[in-house]
Amino acid sequence: MPSTGFLKIQTLTSRAELPVAGATVTVSAVRPGGGRELLSLQRTDESGMTATVTVPTPDVSNSLTPDQPRGWTDVQIAADHPNYDGVVSRDVQIFPGVTTLQELYLIPRGGLPTDPGSTEDYATPPQGL
Fold first, then answer.
1. What are residue 74's DSSP bridge partners?
2. Is there a domain that residue 105 lies in?
3. CA dihedral 32, 35, 39, 45 (to 10 degrees)
């Protein structure tokens, strides 16, 4: 039986860890075979936070024994802001009945000697359940 998990995202500056308001955040579920489904598109508030995103997940029983299919849903989160380089966080695991807080650290443009408008890309390793 399908279930749901929840996700909140906070965007922060990479140096001072101050909230980044007005960042555009997308959340996509990663489907078997590599396809993606858009789950949320929103802007962060003055605290750098998004509203809670509801994510369809497998039933919690999938996490109870090793011979079951995986018990979480992988999502990809991307954040963009005109004053910062973009960031993408891949393979973020969302578990049934759990609220996950994902912090994304945005680098101010001109903060590093890289191409303007570049995107930082992070992959989250799977849980060893």
1. 93
2. yes
3. 120
Is residue 36 assigned to a domain?
yes
- Secondary structure element (H or E) that encloses residue 45, with its range: none
- The domain total for the chain is 1
pLDDT per residue, tens digit, the chain (129 aa), is 569 999 999 999 987 789 999 999 999 998 878 788 999 999 999 999 999 999 999 888 777 777 777 788 899 999 999 999 999 999 899 999 999 999 999 988 875 555 555 566 666 767 665
CATH number at residue 97: 2.60.40.10
H helices, E strands: number in the chain? 0, 8
Burial label, 66 (beta-carbon count in 10 A; 0-12, 13-18, 19+):
exposed
* pTM passes above 0.85: no
Which residue's structure tokens are 């018990």? 71
